[in-house]
Write a structure and sequence with these properties.
five-stranded mixed beta sheet, 8 helices, about 40% helix, about 15% strand, globular
């Protein structure tokens, strides 16, 4: 299944939207990592060029977690699919609620494509907000409590039987600067991979 083709078939405004152009076997995906926002250049996204900027931080996170990966194919082969909550590049420094809402139908559809998901990792506050908007539509309440990620990291949060793991943003300059968040995100990835391999 090609994810981009699936999402482009939705009857919503798509100008400026970027979707993961990747073929996956949806049955084999057991975990989804939701990053914050697509990059300005699609070649820098997870399924873009082999030396994409987003992979320059994602791959070292897995390696720091003790998982031997060197490419996005290796990550997919683990049963882990990575996507972005916001499908249009950010225009300013921050991402507005409206931007998250515009991408929500696509993220919702994307999550529904994978029938065997055990874990959803929310990489940063934008991913957390987007997932809460989805859970509020289906259950009437937020899946993830509105407290800092640091306080939630060791909580067992479930949404419709799927373990939800709030963690830290995995792309961009922030992760290169904040070593403690890099360490914690790597620890979270290690826990997630152990869960899907059980």
């Amino acid at each position: 299944m090609n994810i981009k083709n699936e999402l482009e078939s939705l009857p919503f405004e798509k100008s400026n939207m970027q979707f993961c152009n990747v073929d996956v076997d949806p049955e084999k995906i057991l975990a989804i990592m939701i990053n914050e926002v697509v990059p300005a250049d699609p070649k820098q996204d997870f399924y873009g060029a082999d030396d994409a900027a987003y992979l320059e931080t994602a791959i070292p996170l897995f390696q720091k977690a003790g998982i031997h990966v060197n490419s996005i194919s290796d990550i997919l082969n683990l049963g882990v699919y990575i996507t972005n909550a916001v499908k249009a590049p950010k225009a300013g420094y921050t991402i507005s609620r409206e931007q998250i809402e515009e991408s929500l139908p696509f993220l919702e559809k994307e999550l529904s494509l994978f029938p065997n998901i055990k874990v959803v990792m929310l990489m940063g506050d934008v991913a957390k907000k987007a997932f809460n908007m989805i859970s509020k539509k289906t259950t009437g309440k937020n899946a993830v409590p509105g407290v800092s990620t640091y306080k939630l990291r060791n909580s067992e949060i479930y949404h419709e039987g799927i373990r939800i793991m709030p963690s830290y943003i995995m792309t961009g300059q922030n992760i290169l600067i904040e070593k403690s968040k890099f360490e914690m995100a790597a620890e979270d990835i290690s826990v997630m991979v152990k869960m899907i391999q059980q």
